[in-house]
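We now fix the convention by which a protein and its fold are recorded. The integers have meaning only within a learned vocabulary of local backbone shapes. A complete example follows; check for yourself that the lines match position by position.
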Amino acid sequence: MDIQFTDSCCNTHPTKTSWVNKGEFKPLSTKVTGVDRRTYQVGPKGAKKGIISLLDIHGFHPTSVQILSEKGFLVSAIDLFLNGPIPDDYMGDMTKLGAWVRSNVEYQGNHIRELVEVAVNDLRVEGCESFYIVGHCWGTHLAIRTATDLEGIFLGVAGPHPTAVSVPLVVNLKCPLALFPAEDDPNMLPVIEAVQAKGFGVPSIHVRYDDMPHGFCGGRGDWSIPEQKQAAHQVIETIAQFFHDLGVKEEFSVEAMIPAVVGRNGRRAFTGLASTTFMSLSTIPSQTKSAALPIADFRSDTLTQPSEEMFRVMQEASRGDDVYEEDESVRSLEAYVARLTGHEAGLFCASGTMTNQLAFRASLLTPPASILCDNRSHVYRHEAGGIASHSQATVYPVRANANNGHHLTVKDIAQEFVVDDRDVHMAPTRLISLENTLSGTVMPLDEIQSIGRFARERGVRLHLDGARVWNAAVAEGCSLESITKEFDSVSLCVSKGVGAPIGSVLVGETEFIRKARHFRKMFGGGWRQAGGLAAVAHWCIDNVWPTMGETHLLAKRLAQGLEQHGGGAKITIPVETNMVFLDLAGSGIRLSELSRRLEERHIKIGSRNAPEDQTQVRLVLHWQISQQAVDDFIEVVKDMAQNASQTGANQGNESGERSSMPVYGSR
């Protein structure tokens, strides 16, 4: 078999790096082809998981192996070069490059296999029990070939910017594969699909970085460019999570495998980050032999489950007492979110309901008082009457009249505003509460600014229920602060789209947060060792939030597929972020039957016991929904619509009328 190179591979030169080696070069315990060989080894002593790293032809650069070692692996980067790395002037000369590779890289025969076998045995002596292999560029070819030859040793293979990888190469591969092609790299989807088709080849990953140069994760990556550095870190951290989620060898089985996460081409609507496609395998928690297949849960983005990486972050968090304000992880999260939103201080709490209610209580010190809010809002419909109970305030729900009810306007607010002392029969308006996003739709920035001016002119406070304001910022392509700076207080949930297990942060002025902290204790919401929860929330903001644009693209893909193949099914609210509102009236599909059929495909929606006349359902996408789940959903609806058309079924709702129960998108 010959090696074929891409133009990007052959013409991209290495860059200088300031990274310092933190490991050590060690001789391999056994000679290979009669020659003493060495390996660069880095990682925690006593690590149970070992990685063999095959570096690219520019020699040793410690960047990727060092980051992998910091994720809990003992990494062995084998010295493959007989006479040193390739001379720089060979790059771009196919004849010289090909000859150098064939004569200087131990590629033919069993030399690579022998080197890897010795390196694995050396890692086993160090205490490693499970093994994985990474190959950069042409090294991906070698890694796949080696994992195939040494069947049963490696639980997974990963390849940043792979070269010389094709479908025939993976015919006999017996473990999952993760590939991360860059610009001008060949299409690797057929390779991933071939691995998936084996029936054991999940979880596999394909993430394409069309705006990153070949070699950006290795010696040719210029990490002085922030976008390249961030993209490279994403790839390396995804590989680490991929390997961790495969588990140790004793737990690995076909039954335990989970659906593949396949990245898609597309750009994120997120300011300040590289325009890459990125989906982490941590979207689904580790499985064991006895675990059932995971569910793609479309009921709410609150139903995501923590990954193994999140548990590791929690273990490393501080363990101080938050009631005494002594926990470093909590303080760090509060300051971080306050800084992101342009506010002075923050308060970490257990839920968005709590942060909303604390905001109202700290703002409304004495009755009589009223709050104006959208009649669809969470604070009005889904917080158990908390405003009346906690703050002794009246709520005046306002109906949005403009743009088909898309969002409240300053005109809507003005019509319901109660001026102080004008009428003793009415509670004066003391606070206006907005929600962004609401039912998945984004409130325009200019309207927020208009309502903000209106509130300030009248001396009333403006609060934002920003449970999903993270989604709004991504959809608008702006910073959080651009949205949140208009508000006196903002509640930001971290357990919805951001993906943390629990929590919400309230931000505002320092004195306001001091009052809210006091009321939190009064409400029984003071918590002690909350550092682990705060640390993982911080991690999710940094690692999950940047992937949110991909979730929005999946939501649009789902909506388009349902309308195209749903036999009359309609999307009732514009899909602007991560929510799809589906109405099956006129499609001939019963909602309860759809729910049952989807469960057969390990997909859950919230309508298994829906009334016979209910036709509407809310679908919420998040970072643990894969493209495969979306495509399966569309396929089920398409099949049911075709059957309904053939049989003349009409779902018992011939008039096409919707259920009288409206579906709102706040929960």
User: Anything to note?
Assistant: The first strand starts at residue 24 and ends at 27.
